[in-house]
């Protein structure tokens, strides 16, 4: 194939012409219809916002809701135009070519050599919306994105939507918006090169000494066990033939066996004989090992047996000899074929086992670090919740391996269809302060006393479904440690929605201290005397009193997942994972948080390991990056095998490794070496990278447990140790590369 392909291309050639990207009249008409329909919907949304009739989405303002709706509609236009373009390519007659199989651009996209279907649709149909930091272009000029448009204009053409294609040509404003988005892409590419380079270096330094030992475990250079079996199955990711990390494509393997092992004249196996034969072979070849692979193989064989049984029962099988022969070769399986299939599967499984000495740590570090260059540096908004930033791409990977995070909790409800229940849970979870539910707080001055008068906004309490009464508010005030202490004797309730609070007469605060506190907390408050200072301070304290909710949960929103039939769940910003799990109405089995450190504190270190694996795999898959799960498992185990979540940083490396030389080779070299010399630390280096630094030669192969001493000769034996010297080094420098090996 390698020799034949260049000969074919040298004779035929492969080129792209204007005819490959010329739209048909039908496609142009369909595109015009989509644009007119989509633009009309966008204008309707804008009119609703101007008239105050636009219903805000959960957790969003009216402006954010409008942006979300318009972006959704414009994305729909681009997707529909792209789909129409792909469908139209198979019907139009392009120059001298008769069908889409000869369209050069489409051929490149399908075979994966260059480009994608989006690129083709942009060349032929519609370029689409230009995004700046995940949003439509902002109003960089005074109240408008460009001086070509009216002020405060929110229409698609004024906010970066390019309706033309590259074939038809862009207008001046469309070209300007396109250059803005292109510049962001260039800067993003330049910056993330340095970010991902340092990210990969940290991963390599923290994982470089992990290797597979002869007992199948993954160990560090000092013998610490990180994994009992690499990737939980002991298989080499490089030997996987199927997708999603599976060792074999069983369907393809069975077809190969059927083609290479003819059915011959032997009788087909009956159902019982198939089951007995497969069990006998698997017991002999696998035994009790490879349990997961054996289960998958047994399930596949069971499926083949059931399919064979259905074929044997069909009337066509018994009608004549020709139909019987065809069905036997297509669906049935003989004794020799079943034996060959099972033996080939077991043989490939054993061949795929990871070899002892493989530097799985360095391989995992590069396998995770290299694809990260394909990801973006920006954070995106959560779908439908414009007010919540969900970090993705390179920043998210950095957060995970640095063991830091901006915690986001996704809580599943017991009744996923009840939006009223979701609102009630949010009311109990989200922080509610007295200032948010007060209609007013007024200072009342009378000749004989001064007090505060508070009136609750009962309508807001009812809309937010808060479980708050005057009695709970009084208790919250008494529990809160205010700058000016408030006692129960100072509070008087008036009716069901009002209360009066008198300032204390024996306050220990002076006017000067009150001024400093007001500068920090209230700002712009002018102090004019003792009574006013105390009063202003008392005004500030109740406003921040925590009435309901969890203190660390700053914001909550209801998220309706369209992919699962508008199931309602709660998205919360905060780290009180234990508090949300204990909230009634929340299904703790399906509630998760994206912070591994908090998961470790609440659910344990194994749950934190699973959280790290899930978060990294989710981030990679969001960018279309395929990554073998075994590499991520090793990274998660390296971060958690000490019993706590350690980051891949200089501070985490100190807790992971005890070797002075390894720490010095990473960062803060002088500090580590000086401290080791001061405390007279000893660092044995039996194998791997450290020994190569002092031996003066590079490692022979990435197999630390099978270090080869090529070009060394034994000088002498001292106290049970062997002194080796390399023949290329001068005799007076032998001491600089002495290697001590325990006998």
Low-confidence regions:
92-100, 379-388, 509-547, 687-724, 726-743
Largest sheet: number of strands, sense, barrel closure = 4 strands, antiparallel
What assembly state would you assign to the polypeptide chains in this entry?
Answer: single chain
The span between the termini is: 53 Å
CATH class of the domain at 13-170: Mainly Alpha
Radius of gyration: 35 Å
Q: What is the typical, i.e. mean, pLDDT?
A: 74
Which strand order does the major sheet show?
15-16-8-17
**Number of strand elements:** 20
GO molecular function: DNA binding; DNA-directed RNA polymerase activity; metal ion binding
InterPro entries: RNA_pol_Rpb1_4, RNA_pol_Rpb1_5, Rpb1_funnel_sf, RPC1
Protein name: DNA-directed RNA polymerase
Domain RNA polymerase Rpb1: 51-162, 169-659
Brief digest:
This protein has about 750 residues and is of the alpha+beta class.
Write the layout of secondary structure elements.
Layout: H1 4-12, H2 25-51, H3 62-89, H4 104-111, H5 117-124, E1 128-129, E2 161-162, H6 172-207, E3 211-212, E4 218-219, E5 225-227, H7 250-260, H8 271-285, H9 291-313, H10 315-319, H11 321-331, H12 335-351, H13 360-369, E6 380-382, E7 385-390, H14 393-401, E8 408-413, H15 419-429, E9 432-433, H16 434-437, E10 438-446, E11 449-456, H17 458-463, H18 470-479, E12 491-494, E13 498-501, H19 511-521, H20 530-543, E14 546-548, E15 555-561, E16 567-573, H21 577-581, E17 586-593, H22 596-603, H23 605-622, H24 629-640, H25 650-656, H26 660-664, H27 669-678, H28 689-695, E18 712-718, E19 721-726, E20 741-742
Antiparallel strand pairs: 1-2, 3-4, 4-5, 6-7, 8-16, 8-17, 9-14, 10-11, 11-13, 12-13, 15-16, 18-19, 19-20
